UniProtKB/TrEMBL annotation:
Keyword check for Chaperone: no
Higher taxonomy: Bacteria, Pseudomonadati, Pseudomonadota, Alphaproteobacteria, Acetobacterales
Signal peptide residues on this chain, from the entry's feature table: 1-25
A Pfam entry, by short name: Peripla_BP_2
Residues covered by the Fe/B12 periplasmic-binding domain: 44-307
Keywords recorded for this protein, A-Z: Signal
Regions that span the bilayer: none
Keyword Ribosomal protein attributed: no
InterPro entries given in the database record: ABC_Transporter_SBP (IPR050902), ABC_transptr_periplasmic_BD (IPR002491)
PROSITE patterns, A to Z: FE_B12_PBP
Database matches in PANTHER family: MOLYBDATE-BINDING PROTEIN MOLA, VITAMIN B12-BINDING PROTEIN
Source superkingdom: Bacteria
Identification of the protein by name: Fe/B12 periplasmic-binding domain-containing protein
Length: 338
């Protein structure tokens, strides 16, 4: 199942939660359609996957007991102090459930990758810790996820600010997304160190390309999973002749620009190789996060500079103020640009 499937089911949960009526505990319907009994007052949250952890870092870092993601050297300056102080706690499938009991967890938040049944959610049920599943893909579900979590945690005002920021970014993309197929810039997404692994046009991991109005040059289909990808050859890429190559990280882009074999591609020779920022973690996927708000607009402006105005410095500063309450320096922005 595509991540975020059964999208109508969260509506019931949101209707139940949106009343804002305190309770001594009650049943909610999570974003996978599961009925879960949760406490009214939630003080200690364990995020079992990176995406919900990053969402919670914006919404309720004070309730988190830890984070499942690594923080590479140099990333601390791009995360709020409250998040940097949290210990790293292994994610779903890598942590002993008994440790969560010892930590006194009130709620576990799990990424709804494939819908129920979910093995880790079943483990939590077995030991009596409430676990809700939330959507972290596709991007169009992010606002609903923030509203769901905000209602669940009694942080509706904060979650509404974040949800609206995401919706406003999506609305700005309507113009480029309406460009007819023949007029779209053709894009290849380089997803590996050698540039030869990518994502099919229908894959949720490569959704940033169509969101930005681009046409993925690989009209294939793979399973919707984090491990799915497609391998191509330079010979095939020469035949596909993409207008633009966008790399998952600055390191990949540097390799493509410097490698003699890649110089045969028109996009490389013409200097149309771009890279997504990767601090404090990748902005496009692995992990999926609200940073995609910036990524889709940045890529759309690169593909169609006359169609969408996007000031990287201003937008990134505004994003950090809104989502993390942080102010970035000029040096910070230079580091993010890679």
């Amino acid at each position: 199942m595509r991540p975020g499937g059964r999208w109508w089911r969260p509506v019931a949960a949101l209707l139940w939660l949106a009343t804002g009526t305190p309770a001594t505990g009650g049943e909610v319907i999570d974003m996978a359609g599961r009925h879960v009994t949760v406490p009214d007052q939630i003080h200690r949250i364990y995020a079992a996957h990176d995406p919900p952890a990053i969402f919670l870092a914006s919404l309720a870092p004070d309730l988190m007991v830890g984070v499942p993601f690594d923080r590479p050297p140099g990333s601390a300056r791009f995360l709020p102090p409250a998040v940097n102080r949290l210990p790293r706690i292994r994610g779903a499938g890598r942590i002993d459930p008994e440790r969560l009991l010892a930590l006194g967890i009130d709620l576990v938040v799990i990424w709804n990758m494939r819908g129920p049944p979910d093995a880790f959610a079943a483990q939590m049920d077995a030991i009596g810790i409430p676990a809700v599943m939330v959507d972290a893909a596709p991007f169009s579900r992010y606002a609903a996820t923030f509203r769901f979590l905000g209602a669940l945690l009694h942080r509706q005002a904060r979650s509404e600010v974040l949800a609206r920021a995401l919706e406003q970014a999506s609305a700005r993309l309507a113009g480029v997304q309406a460009i007819p197929g023949a007029g779209r810039v053709r894009v290849y997404y380089a997803d590996s160190a050698d540039g030869l692994r990518s994502q099919c046009a229908t894959a949720f991991r490569g959704e940033v390309v169509p969101l930005a109005g681009g046409a993925n040059v690989l009209p294939c289909r793979t399973a919707d999973s984090m491990g799915a990808s497609v391998t191509v050859s330079l010979e095939r890429l020469l035949l596909l002749d993409p207008d633009v190559i966008v790399a998952r990280s600055p390191a990949i882009a540097r390799f493509l620009r410097a490698d003699a074999g890649w110089q045969a591609l028109r996009a490389v020779r013409e200097g149309r190789v771009y890279a997504f920022p990767d601090r404090p973690f990748n902005w496009v996927e692995r992990p999926h996060s609200q940073f995609k708000l910036l990524t889709v607009q940045w890529l759309a402006q690169r593909l169609y500079p006359g169609r969408l105005a996007f000031d990287f410095a201003q937008a990134t500063r505004n994003f950090y103020r809104t989502f993390f309450g942080m102010e970035l320096s000029d040096d910070d922005l230079a580091r993010l640009r890679g």
